Fold this sequence. Notes:
This protein is of the alpha/beta class. The protein is built from 12 helices and 10 strands. The protein has a 7-stranded mixed sheet with strand order 3-4-2-1-5-6-7. The radius of gyration is 23 Å and the shape is globular. The relative contact order is 0.12.
Amino acid sequence: MSDMTGRVAVIRVLLFLLFIPCLPAQLFAAAGPVLPGIDVLEQRGFDLLQGKRVGLITNHTGRSRDGRSTIDIINRAPGCRLTALFSPEHGIRGEADDKVASATDRASGLPVHSLYGATCRPTPDMLHGVDILVFDIQDIGTRFYTYIGTLSLAMRAARDAHIPFVVLDRPNPLGGERVEGAIPTTPLPERASGCGAITSIHPIPTRHGMTMGELARLFNAEFGIGCRLTVVPMQGWRRAMYFDATGLAWINPSPNMKNLSAAILYPGLGTLETADLSVGRGTERAFLAYGAPWVDGAAMARNLATRSIPGISFTPCSFVPTAAGHPYRGKRCSGVCVASLDRDRLDPILAGLHLAQAFYETHPRRFKVSDGFGTEVGDREAWRLLRQKGVSPLDVERRWDRELERFRMVRGRYLLY
């Protein structure tokens, strides 16, 4: 290599290094493999579990990067003994779409205590013979997805039983940068079973932008749980990463959360489950299709087209929902389906408010929502405002700005990445 060639090469390297800070963070999001907390715990020789009888709160999403079940990994781990399993909504295999009974795990022979049946929190009897509780479940980054409630209730049970609580962290599929949606001001009543408040367990935004480990840290300190908490962080995860940048296999966290697009829409459009509509459960377009036998899909699509909702468009469609226990099962529904999605421009909460308002405007005598709409949106005045002439979804969303800014400041104390 000549001196001139060498100098040119050095200059190019220096220019590249100077240019790196100007590049968007998204370009580096997939720079390396993400190792979930279970992989990190295994690398550490299961140090936190040594000499302990372990209770594991998990389901089918609790897996290592190479696909091994967290149940199997801990069951075979040296120096500890797995004695009990605890399952959230949808059961240990993620197949149930109703209340779940306690049972015995077919593969391991261990008891599986349901936390979505007669009770939603571990009872003293369930914790008998358990020295430490470990939590490993993949969440989807939405306040009203019940796994967050299971986390909080289990932490309280661990506190009351005077045993440590460990969270094996996993990615937030929606990334960890954006914080959107209302923060509930009215707590749900909590029944003895703990199930009453499970869809709105703490006042956090609908899209909170935190991992389960980070939420556990926030819950423990800000909401007075005070359990002996340890979080095993991931390796390689960055806040700009959506799930498809992690290199991890997508496993449906619940029967109808079938892809990342559905998860991205869920914080906003998922609130339409509280209306007299089908959201396509049981079809391949669950949470991408919204309608009912009485809906005029073409009229709905025209209404939505006039709104120019950022990052999303809709087209008329028809579908037949098949999920048991959900509206219009087996009946042909007309409505609208998501035609295009730009996740960088989309505000899913704003899009959900637009969709609800468009259904009301198109079918004012037929379209209704239940009280659950206010619970899931997190603002019990939202539906009343959306029905008023001249009030836009953006007007509704702006009501939440001040509390969102306060939350961002609080959450900063608990971020791990």
